[in-house]
Write a structure and sequence with these properties.
The structure holds three protein chains of three kinds. Chain B is mostly helical. Chain B is 72% helix and 1% strand. In chain B, 50% of the residues are buried. Chain C is mostly helical. Chain C is flat, with a radius of gyration of 25 Å. The chains are: A alpha/beta, B mainly alpha, C mainly alpha. Chains in contact: A-B, A-C, B-C.
Chain lengths: 260, 316, 289
Amino acid sequence: MTTIATGELLATQDLSAYYGNRQAVAEVTIAFRRKAVSALIGPSGCGKTTLLRCLNRIHEINFEARVEGSVLLDGQDIYGGDVDPMAIRRRVGMVFQRPNPFPTLSILDNTVACAPKGLNRREKMEAAERALRSAALWDEVKDKLKTSPLRLSGGQQQRLCIARAVAAEPEVLLMDEPTASLDPIATAVIEELMSSLCKEFTIVAVTHNMQQAARVSSVTAFMLADETGIGRLIEVDDTAKLFTKPSDRRTEDYISGRFG
Amino acid sequence: MENAGPQFRRVARFVSPADRGFAAIVYAGSILFALLIVGLFVELVLGSWPSIVKFGPGFIFSSSWDPITSKFGALPMIFGTVMTSLIAIVLAAFIGIMAAVFLADFAPRWLGQPLSFLIELLAAVPSVVYGLWGLFVLSPFMRTTLGPALQHVLGWTPLFSGPILGVGLLTGGIILALMILPTVTAISRDVIAAIPRDLREASMALGSTKWETAMKVVLPAARVGIFGACVLALGRALGETIAVTMVIGNRPEISSSLFAPSYTLASVIANEFTEATTSIYISALIELGLILFLVSMVVNALARLMIWSVRGSERV
Amino acid sequence: MAQSASKNRNLARRRLIGGLGIAVALACAMIGAVCLLIILGFVIVQGAGALNRDFLTQLPHPVGVPGGGVGNGILGTFIILGIATAMAVPIGLLTGIYLSLFGRGPIPEALRFLSDVLSGVPSIAIGLFAYAVLVAPLKHFSAFSASFAFMMLMLPLLVRTSEQAIRSVPQTVREGALALGMSNFRATVRIVLPTARPAIITALLLAIARVIGETAPLLFTAFGSQFWETNPNNPMAVLALQVFTYAISPYPNWQAQAWAGALLLIGAVFVLSLGARLMLRRAMRGLEA
């Protein structure tokens, strides 16, 4: 177990998450390194996606979803009584497992859907170009900004979603298995993106692909569901160290492929 | 550190002012919707109250319908409504279920699809068009051809005896049957098609013919849903107004012959409401409307219960 | 030997019964289709004769005077349906939004139950309601009361379909909008509803198609008129009502016009249903990502 370095931008303290009465995650205390990629790995059902969704309060949009403990953004508990979830979500962006561009908006409108308010047309275009460039998509779509995003390939749509999240100018970017539905080439493009984006954003990425975690992240956290199905944080460490000399036996078993 | 924030998050926990306004509008719309329906029931009760008070439960059993002496009884209308609906459901159930069996299990695609489409189109024909056709095509046909033919064969029963005017219970029943046929056919067909293939294959593997399988295995398995479809269709028949009004003959009498003119609950309201002069007259008519409302509500609730138990929560 | 012969006879008999049964079933399936074609045929043949420009644009002539038309009825139909739609869509849509957001629970289930009850109420009882609320207190018939009745008839379909249409927008689209920091209001209005719009329009077209031929409630709400009328506060002519009045009249001239009016009604239903089908195809395509 690591202690919280309270200087970190994003951290949790004894975070537990429930779906109604069923507990999915128990007492996770973890800090995510600023401006770096942190990977969450673990077998299916270990609660890593649930944990991720607690970090931007998306977990609660489903019925009877409940949280205990706290998540600290810049030292402030995002689950505090008078905290507006929407404000949190603008600071903590998310990219989902399957690309989800808004079907009725053009590529341009998708990108600036949640750009900061009060921009005139020129500023919007500039913001869109910035975001699309940082998602390595600008060259491919600059001539068809007004067309439907549904015509793009899966990899391009996912990069559009990344651009859209980036355009909202968050501080943290959460990624829920962002390459799970993509082919190897598109996957490689996104992994490269993650390396460049982490210079600007703190990134937390869930992945079930260990090699991906080893490639892109500087910190890796391993989670596992205990006998009752509740997910727990087993170990978190620098990626290189976790993959070569893990401290916990269970981590070692998972990494060497003995289960999961 | 125990979380000080709210424990239960509901999607509607609107926080921002925009969301608060949005919530208010959504709630308002839904409340208005509920109020309208409750108001419907309340107004019907209020309007029929004078009549309920004056005639009591005898209203349902009395046969006199006399605006002049202000004596009102619903029995002939109940009789007419029940008889036409009964005729309709008997005809529609047999034809519809047989058709559904054919369309679900025996029809090749090139035949089944167009036939299904045409049968469902029956539901799109407006009620007044059915009435028009019934009045100018079916009634003369009944009077000149079908009626005498039936009387020739079945005239020994009181059901088919008596003068044939063309309009009457039987004509009304036939028109209603056409109007509810698509309901019975479409729902029954879906219910039958939803019966798992293994059941049919097991039956055929035991040596039954395809027809025997359909009759002895598939239909019984589907009977709850099919019954529900029939009850739903019955509910629609009970409330149908205009088409029946145009071919029923509009005579508040109870007779044993199917050829006799009659009157239904809905028809009497349609015909006499604008002519009703006294308030007790109006109140009696509204009470007929209340009876219609309650009967169709019960019938529909029953039907949906049966259909849901077979088709899951899919709405009809 | 004798055993297998009798088995063969038995099988042949069963096959014969099966064949007869299938023939009966086929006949039953055809009865419905054939009746529809007969009805359509009569309406087209009888109606086409009286269908001309005068019929569509003129006022009804006094009894006994040949000619005239249903122009005011066609106008009245548009006006009454327009007002009914303007009232039904907001209420139906808002209730559908509520139901899609709140899913299970006693109150949503109660709303759905009420919606089911309403969909089974005979249209004449709804006409009585409109009369009690908008005609009796104001002491005159009005087109608005007819619109009110039509609104009640359209609501259950709109509520049910709005809820389904919104639910069928993939959960991930909604989550994506919320994850960007949009309020529920913005997410629903800017993202979810536009995605569900084709399905909702389809439902609206079908609701109008269902209501356009309803005559019963009109008898004591709109009541009908011999003149051009655009004020919803007054009695108004409606096509379906004119068809009914002409049909039960003893004048052959009017009866012929009843057929023509019926043809117009069926034509309108056809066009609306076609439009709904095209919209549905667009709705299906729009959701393919």
